[in-house]
Amino acid sequence: MDKLQQHFNVSLQETRSSFHRYMYRRINWNNRMIGLTGPRGVGKTTLILQYIKENLPREQSLYVTAEDFYFAGNKLVDLADEFEKMGGKYLFIDEIHKYKDWSRELKLIYDYHPKLQVVFTGSSVLDINKGASDLSRRAVMYQMQGLSFREYLELFHGIVMPRYTLSDILSHQVQLPDDFRPLPYFADYLKRGYYPFALDDDYAIRLQQIVNQTIESDIPQYAEINIATARKLKRLLAIIAQSVPFKPNVSSIATTLEASRNSVADYCLYLEEAGMITQLRDATGGIRGLGKVDKIYLDNPNLIDVLGQHHGDTGNTRETFFFNQMRVNHDVIVSPVSDFQIDGMTFEVGGKNKKQKQIHNVEKAYIVKDGIETGYMNVIPLWHFGLEY
After folding, report:
1. Residue 264: which of 278, 252, 276, 277 has the closest Cα?
2. How do residues 308-324 score in pLDDT, each as one tens digit?
3. How far is CA 18 from CA 15, 46, 145, 238, 340, in A?
4. Is 32 exposed, middle or buried (0-12, 13-18, 19+ CB in 10 A)?
5. Does pTM surpass 0.85?
């Protein structure tokens, strides 16, 4: 316990509080058990340490990581019991999926320690989701993604802009700060602005490492697949990265990967849950349902730049950005006549020379243009859609 407390102290001292991710204000911190999931590298650990540092008494709080060597010989339930007996009230467990039988022990902690609040995080969305179904009556789950363009501006450049709703954006309510020219910043964001660790050196190398860890370690370990299947996942990701975007032909992919059709669908789901890709579905289920997959994108534009070896298709990058940013607050589905549909509205994404032909005679339709600072009528700048969260 002493070493855990020492590690906690060091972590708190190293935590900066000048910037908060969007999820910080969305979580209802009054719940007895809270789960925060998301891909590697999006800032979950920093978020919970910030909350502890700014809101909770240090002597009643404990932050641990399930990767700690302490858990090689100690159980989580025993730690919770000892912590509460010492006056502890707030237990935070990072990387919970690294702990065997985490779901069962969290249920025991919830049932046996009604005065103890537990917050846990996990990078492996696959395994968290498996266990979360068992915790459905106990844990309130939140899922966090990477930086919005608005967050990037504040974290990287100190440029503070308010959040705008989709209605605000479509009605041209976005106000530019004095002397602010967004397009150079936006171009940089598409290459290196999605993950907070881009503030550090060797961003491309670190992002490639995250991709490798996700495919070679996280998915195989928690989806219970072997190394050969992990190699197929990597090949599938490479195929998607080279497409503009990728319209799945399951039979063709199955042949290329030497896998069954059902396995290909599973592979895509694994990659999607792990934050590597996202699948655009039709109206029968939407992104959160079971609709037919129409297109497959990489999860965010930064992955295009790294996995595409800096030669990603511009049109694909634009669509990926729009889909990535809008899915946080909306159910984004494929449009039968254009690129995307949100709440009955149609969106055609393109460059600054994009014409109205594609959406001619379509009600509630908008042209989303890259390369422009401000919009007019039904023409909306692409970068505006990065201000929603």
Report:
1. 252
2. 765 668 999 999 999 99
3. 10, 11, 19, 37, 36
4. middle
5. yes
